[in-house]
Amino acid sequence: MSSSSPPPELVCPAGSLPALKAAVDHGADAVYIGLKNETNARNFPGLNFDEISARAGIQYARQRGRKVFMAINTYAQGVDITRWTRGIDQAADLGVDAVILADIGLMRYAAQRHPGLRLHMSVQSSATNYEAVNLAHELFGVQRAVLPRVLTLDQVRHVIEHTPVQIEVFGFGSLCVMVEGRCLLSSYATGESPNTHGVCSPAKYVRWEEGAAALDARLNGVLIDRYAKDEPAGYPTLCKGRFAVQDETYYALEEPTSLNVITMLPQIMAMGVSAIKVEGRQRSPAYVAQVTQALRAALDAAAHDGARYNVKPAWQQALGKVAEGQQQTLGAYSRPWR
Description:
Elements: E1 9-13, H1 17-25, E2 30-33, H2 51-63, E3 67-72, H3 82-94, E4 98-101, H4 104-113, E5 119-121, H5 130-140, E6 144-146, H6 153-161, E7 166-174, H7 185-190, H8 194-197, E8 206-210, E9 214-219, E10 222-228, E11 242-245, E12 248-251, E13 258-260, H9 265-270, E14 275-278, H10 285-305, H11 313-322, E15 328-329
Parallel strand pairs: 1-2, 1-14, 2-3, 3-4, 4-5, 5-6, 6-7, 7-14, 13-15
Antiparallel strand pairs: 7-13, 8-9, 9-10, 11-12
């Protein structure tokens, strides 16, 4: 890759107006936000945007030459889809730079009702091949697709080589054991799926029970984890709980860890990836600022230095401090056994 190659767009999370400002101030090219309801996949109390805060955030970003995307990335329910369609109408009225959709029915609605609105295909669509991406492009004019975090670098490259659609991949943030958009664990425990209600562990089902020697974390009565008095306690999700299996207690499905591709940026950029995405609309403005700043510096260095690119320890230290479980991984991008 030549030293003159521009870096991919850095797309950062904003679960609140302070987080949006933190992302913009620390180098994000674009931020993605959601509404205060189940139309978005980070539907936590106290997070997300109403019309007033959304307009303020869009104005703040635009004044600084940055973009704002609206995530309406859960699946509309047949009983009443108006909340989702109203969300698309509201996004168009606000003048967002793109709306991120998972539901193809909503893609159809957006394409027909708001033909000038740019559409991005959410990771929740589970588009793991170029045929799915191209179909959304041909039918609804989708211009960018976010790929699930289960593809290898070769598989990502294969998609890019066979589609005119821009491809966005995750660069940092919490990992999930499932292919995004296909998880049923939450609905098994609570009856509410993240695809329909926007949260894989709805706060109303979360209970913390403090005992004499330990802190229990439960999801709708299911014991997810038990923490010692001096042990950091994470938010309970089924996939990252510790369970007793054949007389051993451990992370039976997945350990808490964060994807971090900072060492592989030159390879990812050389494939023609259009955007690098950061997970974490449920995280604090401090998290957003720290991750954005580190990735901004790394992306600019990778674009400028090419083959001479080296990861600075300060970047890794900054990202390590906010990694889930204080652990980092290359995820599916690194498959040495292949």
